[in-house]
Write a structure and sequence with these properties.
- By secondary structure, the chain is α+β, with helices and mostly antiparallel strands.
- The chain folds into two domains: 220 residues, START domain (Alpha-D-Glucose-1,6-Bisphosphate, Chain A, domain 4, 2-Layer Sandwich), CATH 3.30.530.20; 148 residues, Alpha-D-Glucose-1,6-Bisphosphate, Chain A, domain 4 (2-Layer Sandwich), CATH 3.30.530.20.
- Helices cover 32% and strands 37% of the residues.
- The protein is built from eleven helices and 16 strands.
- The termini are far apart.
């Protein structure tokens, strides 16, 4: 009976999605196709993978109205070791700090159905997953498909791919899409703000999962570099904007500079779809820039002086109302924005543009800030979980890029 129930859940999800697709042309997040990175794209990202994980946050596609997040990370462990970590959900609570329990409901061939509970300081979440393990080996790699069929994070799908790069090194690509619009009250309230907040949760949860799998695989392989490092000064990343141009047509790229568990900085690059002149016009206007911090934000200039332009900003997101004061220092090249007070008061952001042939602007943004310098709710969420904190930083930097592009396009109307 339990085996029948597991198969029924999958058939119901597939048939329900097929019906939805016939009616609306869309499929739900539990079955929509997840993208990957081909050989050429992985080669382009190799210089950045040497410093830390890379994220590609796709634009909306024709299958679903929710974009996917694709992570890539180099793990210093054999592919078989990493597959052993991913493919045994019952062992997840041993090394995933926030995961309090996993209950295996059924194992049928390559399929494993399990319930999970995830606890943070503020509240706990539960959900139901079904994992399919595909045949693989240490030469061609491994693949795992995980469908979230219900729970507090809604429905969604995760795809793991493990690519061997040598006897003790592998590349892991982790694609994820969650749909929180029919989840519990808190996640529904956050998702009501649109794709930006839904994407933020996707990025943060995926970051925790990937980095904890990475740490456990390297621990088993005896290659784990643990500990806390001194933070490096904020510096401009080296990015081949021409080489990445086609990949940036799929979505925005986020690069993380990490040593052990220490996150030094996060950079995001993207194509603006507008001229360099229009992009810099937004960057150099504090009120326009303040509005582009996140969707729904607003800003007001407080003072203009030789030191720069001070402005107040706020984002009235349900449950996460944030705001503060910042100073913008314009220049013909790099635009600097630094926190002064309120949320993210110690943050540093830098922005520059790149002109493609034909006049389109590319945007390069790099930053460093501490998520603990945030409202109480966010501090509660990240308390005791360094990887969730890193995910929040990446998601916030990504949101700035997306919102900046939105302001640029609104300005052109």
């Amino acid at each position: 009976m339990r085996r029948f129930l597991t198969v029924f859940i999958l058939l119901a999800a597939w048939s329900g999605s097929a019906y939805a697709e016939r009616q609306s042309g869309k499929v739900d997040a539990s079955v929509a196709r997840l993208g990957a990175l081909n050989v050429e794209e992985r080669a382009l990202l190799a210089p950045h993978l040497a410093h830390g994980p890379v994220l590609l946050t796709e634009f909306q596609n024709r299958q679903t109205d929710l974009p996917a997040v694709i992570y890539a990370a180099r793990i210093h462990a054999p592919a078989k070791t990493i597959a052993g970590v991913i493919g045994k959900p019952a062992e997840y609570p041993r090394f995933m700090n926030a995961l309090t329990s996993v209950d295996i409901r059924e194992v049928s061939g390559q399929m494993t159905a399990f319930d999970w509970s995830w606890g943070v300081t503020l509240f706990s979440l539960t959900g139901q997953n079904v994992m399919t393990s595909y045949p693989g080996n240490s030469t061609r790699g491994y693949r795992f498909d995980v469908r979230t069929t219900g729970g507090d994070l809604g429905i969604g799908r995760v795809m793991w791919r493990v690519y061997p790069e040598g006897p003790n090194r592998s590349l892991v690509v982790f694609a994820s899409r969650l749909d929180m619009r029919n989840a519990n009250y808190i996640t529904r309230q956050l998702a009501s703000e649109g794709n930006s907040v839904n994407r933020t949760v996707n990025v943060a949860v995926a970051m925790v999962t990937l980095l904890e799998v990475k740490a456990e695989a390297e621990r088993r392989a005896g290659t784990l570099i643990d500990g806390i490092y001194a933070t490096k000064p904020l510096r401009r990343p080296r990015v081949d904007m021409d080489g990445l141009r086609s990949l940036l047509a799929r979505g925005d790229l986020v690069f993380m500079d990490m040593d052990g568990m220490t996150l030094h900085s996060v950079a995001v690059v993207g194509r603006a779809g507008a001229s360099e002149r229009r992009v810099r016009r937004v960057m150099l206007d504090p009120e326009e820039f303040g509005k582009s911090l996140l969707h729904g934000s607003c800003a007001e200039v407080v003072e203009r002086s030789e030191k720069g332009t001070r402005f107040e900003w706020e984002i009235p997101i349900p449950l996460l109302h944030v705001g503060g004061e910042m100073i913008l220092r314009p220049s013909p090249s790099v635009v600097s924005v630094d926190g002064i007070s309120g949320t993210l008061s110690r943050g540093q952001w830098r922005f520059d543009t790149y002109r493609y042939p034909g006049g389109e602007a590319g945007v390069i943004a790099w930053a460093t800030f501490d998520p603990a310098d945030s409202p109480k709710l966010i501090r509660k969420l990240i308390a005791g979980n360094t990887y969730f904190s890193h995910g929040f930083v990446a998601a916030t930097q990504l949101a700035v890029m997306r919102s900046l592009r939105t302001r640029v396009h609104l300005l052109g109307r």
